[in-house]
Amino acid sequence: MKILIVSYMIPEAPSGVSVHYMNLAKSLERAGHQVQTLSVADAQPIIRKTSTAASKILSLFGGLGKELARESQNFIRIYTAVRQLIRKKDFDIINAQDLGSAYAAKLASNGRIPVLLTCHFNDDPATETIKRRNLTGLAVTFTQKWHQHLFKAITYYNGVSSYVIKRSRHLFNIDAIVEIIHNGVDFKAVQRTSPLSVLHSQYPGKYVLMNIGHLEKRKNQDLFLEAAYYLKKQRSDFVCAMVGNGEDYAYLQDQIQKRDLADCVVMLGHHEDVIPVLKSADIYMHTALNENCPLVLLEAIASSVPVFALAVGGIPELLKQKEALFSQGITAEFLADKLSAALDDEQFRAKLQHLQYDDGLKGFDIYRMTHKYLAYYQRIIRHFEEQKISGNATLKTTDANEISTHKPVPNN
């Protein structure tokens, strides 16, 4: 099979999306298929320069102009890059990693190649964009209308969690075909990776509690810091390691100083490969307020680290153990107590890690994920060919009782 994977996100981006599609590409190649990845960085230099110049001009026209600039720049780059590539090579299917690249690829191929959209967003991407960029007025209207158009233009979807499909299904084309394929991790490769020894050498005899993610409000690292504050009142045999960069970096550094946590909290910045860092942890604590299918949780599980997280979004689909999940409204003091109890109970941590590892290996290994993608690709290709004759489509899902085309899906 010849597969083209497209994304606005470049492979080097510090994102679970880029890690996902690069891992998928490698796994598909290992399975004997021809795979090519393409991102905005693959557009011709003249296109990149022209789209950048056009975006700068559009940005001069207020909030709406800035949104048009953001959307058009990536869209043009993917559209032209795909169009140029498919003139030289044939592909059986295009797997897009975001809405814009899916529509750009569909237009660039003149609808001759089926396009699958992998849903990495958390809920409604238009609402998320509006909140994240603090949009108002015409910029809000444009963003909503644009996303509505994008959703209606796509026929094939896969959600990396059941949660994301439940939350966004009402946005899809009525003829959409849907599948659930969770993220996957190469458990064997993770086990072969050596841990980063610097943390234990710098903090000998101390437990390492870790949090990884883009430093932003949604990831809620402030809760991790506040829990460290209360944990410090109880004990001194630990260090909290924060991995990642982002807009909240300076704010979090300031909070470390204000809470007098410099001796027990370390910021490690961005690591392109988080597995060696994860393997040096004794506990992984995920504090995000909303998630779809966070790849880092699966990476932590594959690294044989016991994982705790807030029970939000698609996380309960990954963590079946109730003792590993906390409510979104948990206080930092209560969280500190739970983490302290886990540090004191080595048998509990070992049992939790063993259960999570077994569940992860059975349900979220990359080879299982790849097999599901290939089966879905084949199903899409067959349907696409049938559509040329019949012109009809029927919504099909992995769980018709759970995700219905006729019943509205509740938002809570």
From TrEMBL:
Signal peptide: none annotated. Residues 204-352 form the Glycosyl transferase family domain. Keywords: Glycosyltransferase, Transferase. It comes from the Bacteria. InterPro entries: Glyco_trans_1 (IPR001296), Glyco_trans_4-like_N (IPR028098), Glycosyltransferase_grp1 (IPR050194). It is an enzyme of class 2 (transferase). Residues 15-186 form the Glycosyltransferase subfamily 4-like N-terminal domain. The keyword Glycosyltransferase applies. The keyword Zinc does not apply. GO terms for molecular function: glycosyltransferase activity. CDD domains: GT4_PimA-like. Its EC number is 2.4.-.-. This is Glycosyltransferase family 4 protein.
